[in-house]
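Exercise (ungraded).
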Amino acid sequence: MRRLGQILDQIHDRIHEEADWGLPAQYIPELASVDREQFAISAVTPDGQCHSAGLAQRPFSIQSISKVFALTATLGRIGDALWTRVGREPTKVAFDSIMLLETDHGRPSNPFVNAGAIVTTDALLAGREPRQALAEILGLVRTMAGTDDIYINDRVAQSEKRTAERNKALAHYLASHGNLVNDPDLTLGTYFHQCAIEMTTEQLAMSGRVLADLKCAPPTISRAHARRTNALMLTCGHYDASGEFAFKVGLPGKSGVGGGILLIAPRKASIGIWSPGLNGYGNSEAGTRAAAMLADMTGWSVF
Amino acid sequence: MRRLGQILDQIHDRIHEEADWGLPAQYIPELASVDREQFAISAVTPDGQCHSAGLAQRPFSIQSISKVFALTATLGRIGDALWTRVGREPTKVAFDSIMLLETDHGRPSNPFVNAGAIVTTDALLAGREPRQALAEILGLVRTMAGTDDIYINDRVAQSEKRTAERNKALAHYLASHGNLVNDPDLTLGTYFHQCAIEMTTEQLAMSGRVLADLKCAPPTISRAHARRTNALMLTCGHYDASGEFAFKVGLPGKSGVGGGILLIAPRKASIGIWSPGLNGYGNSEAGTRAAAMLADMTGWSVF
Amino acid sequence: MRRLGQILDQIHDRIHEEADWGLPAQYIPELASVDREQFAISAVTPDGQCHSAGLAQRPFSIQSISKVFALTATLGRIGDALWTRVGREPTKVAFDSIMLLETDHGRPSNPFVNAGAIVTTDALLAGREPRQALAEILGLVRTMAGTDDIYINDRVAQSEKRTAERNKALAHYLASHGNLVNDPDLTLGTYFHQCAIEMTTEQLAMSGRVLADLKCAPPTISRAHARRTNALMLTCGHYDASGEFAFKVGLPGKSGVGGGILLIAPRKASIGIWSPGLNGYGNSEAGTRAAAMLADMTGWSVF
Amino acid sequence: MRRLGQILDQIHDRIHEEADWGLPAQYIPELASVDREQFAISAVTPDGQCHSAGLAQRPFSIQSISKVFALTATLGRIGDALWTRVGREPTKVAFDSIMLLETDHGRPSNPFVNAGAIVTTDALLAGREPRQALAEILGLVRTMAGTDDIYINDRVAQSEKRTAERNKALAHYLASHGNLVNDPDLTLGTYFHQCAIEMTTEQLAMSGRVLADLKCAPPTISRAHARRTNALMLTCGHYDASGEFAFKVGLPGKSGVGGGILLIAPRKASIGIWSPGLNGYGNSEAGTRAAAMLADMTGWSVF
């Protein structure tokens, strides 16, 4: 499909022309020093072809995009039992907010805010060794992406472990409401490592094939499961800018503070985008704009 | 399309078998006394055919579904200028909540919570007579539905006017932040009347054709406008149960406390559902379940 | 007591030297245009002598100080039944905040925030004509102050009535929770008029004699009643700066946006202070500093 | 003073007659198992005499009453610099609430809610060894009480350390806003040990002499410092029931979840009360009633 390749090239060029890059995440030392003028976009079509533009083979830290994979692994393991511990509603507060946990008695609003992701990982861990849960998540990511060349960057994980007081506060607060079953430090250690998975946009695009219901996807999760994950990504995937993303892009997406975005165009394509500078909501500045351009140029909006 | 008719009949039968009806809205006297064991569903397909089951020709009070039409009229009149006064984010608070208005300095989160709808109607009114704005909304509804047989029930409007202290509080609070340009009583009077529009599920289904991008739709609003309205319906259309609705149904929808739901399956169908009993979020109890059944049986989920 | 007169003179001089006047209340047109470089202080001692400095015979709008008198009148009429409708706790939110009403289901935190004062006045009104309730409050003020030369400024009341959208929002919100027994407009009309009572600092100081338990006080309310009113003034009398006022002044006090402060030094003196410019909390800027100076120079802190 | 002794005996008898004991703190295992039908009250008069009734020589865990001593020690060391990190306003939320920390960007409302006390202890610790800060607090308590027979119960401290996830969440949240200068674990370790100080009501009453400005008090802190501490105790000393306590008792007081209350009647007496069962606000059920009886019977209210 020649046209898709051209579209990605045009997006790549416009992003570099506009030169509005945002600021890399400052609170994780290993990420703060990244050169922000970087961009990559990859899209896989139903036939399995992957089109790319920019630095599509440069691995980056997927951070919160890992919440999609952890959720998938957890639902695969315990099914709907997860929903007794986490909600499915978008909120209008920041990704690391703790306020709603108090009014909601320790039950996070959804699995894509930090508190909800910590509970999800805790449910996956379930008394096992962190490395077992991490092997399960990483194995799933590799299967979904169709490659074993995906790793956890331990330095990033350690870097976050030293600094992430906010996540520690969330974990202990959840524990105070009995909504963690493991030692908070073990759950957080697992969570920080899952966030430190590194992927390229090509790998990210490949990993979303089953969510996009592409013919080329490996048989990992059921259609119903994929649909529900997409629904959560659309309503909650960009934190307190999720409504805006749905309004402007019209596709399920999940962002990470590493600057990545996994974007799903059901039955059309699975897309990976990366640019490390962030906007005020913690989502990739250039990546968000690229997603809107792609939706405009392809008409892939689900609406 | 024989199959769709059968599906609607099956849904109708299951709803009556399950006999789980919820409770009609108690705070509007005219609505409180409605018999709750009523149900209707209608779906229009791209070819313009309308399939129905149940009481599809019984008019009901569309209430908050009118917010979709008022938004459409307002965006048609002032365009994106509306967004300086209203946001586009889902919230996790009830439809008539006033809390977030305080932290957000009088700017409602989205046009589908009450405060946001009052601002939208205020922007449409813009110094004119209430009857002019109402004529504009009603005219739009009739055009979209392709029939002139749609009216405002003045008794319901008066009934609400007498009782709706919460909406009065919202209007005066908005005014205190300078986010109403008309006298609060005029804006509220217009709002209460727009909510008192009565339609059948057939008419409701017909009115959504343009949002669903059906071939049979009258040319009223642009595709971009329709997509954005659908995005808002999906993320915010069921108040603090919007995430849940997206998760279980996977289609843009807008509910009203009269028990109606307008449901959009892009390029597949436009659907009207009605059952007057409500669940705890103020959405039709049986109607919400019917929407989930329909999505399951047709595979129309956008995800 | 010569020394007290000298202290008041010194305070008066320092206030004028410091020339830090704040800004008169902007939201009530009649008050916004007042010259802010004005100051008065009066103190009545147990023997009935009244010492003053500055413009002690200039009447000003007592505004929220009227909440003390309305509370006194209401407790006199219905006693502790009031506390089923209003709490007795300080809050950390502004005087006109509406947020806590939502979480507290329409029960104001205390009788000195606006919502609590509106409920208090509503309880006093109790189905009667507004002029009856107003006559009762005004009569009480005159008795407590020992003079009939105290009036309501109708122009100020009308001015506020036209502009006070926030108070209207509060009243309708209270009504939506069933915590108003009269028509919101009648209760608000009474409230706006009670706030428009005008007094001089001399009259204000005289009116507080019974609260201060001075020998010269007319027998109006019981000692227990006075003590509890003082307790409320100390914990809640300066809104979200009440803790600060207790910390720096150490005396029960009630401020009004007209720039007045009623200050009670139990068994020592009753004090009236006025300077129309306000600080960021809606309390008199110079008046608050004068209160702190007086407490420092006299050692009258209750602590 | 014979009469005071009789009053305390009467209070003791009435408390045992009423037999309304509340429930001991459940979240600290070492405290949960305490027999709740215990009561003690002691009062020291200006001449240094200590009158008691009940189990006045039984040591109990002072818990949050230690916040008064830690505040005193910290103000003695760094003075008003503390107030850049902690506010002085009462709140209407529970003692262990984390919500307001988010809206206030990590600055606790006052030094008597848990978050504020943790910051206070952190400021006292200031890079030193926990045992140095603890020696300072314990030394101050012993000096104020005039006895060396006061110790920290290490078992209680360890018991709390294992369970207090809520306090850990507060500490890490404060750290995430840069409002802790020490490692959160060190600050918390110090805090848990300070809370585990054990005193009898006799010792507690003796320790409050300087706050009550009694002639018999050892010269430890200035009158101004004592007054301000008393003001904070009155407005914030009983958490979200502080207004109620001021209304009913009218004296500065600080409660602890061990069931103790330190009560200050300026220039009249310093009082220690203990009964381990708590009310819904985390304050001693019988102790709070005893404080109200004492104020009624003595007329010691500051108001």
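Further reading is listed at the end of the chapter. For now, observe: DSSP finds 13 helices and eight strands in chain D. Residues 64-197 of chain D form a domain with the Beta-lactamase fold (CATH 3.40.710.10).
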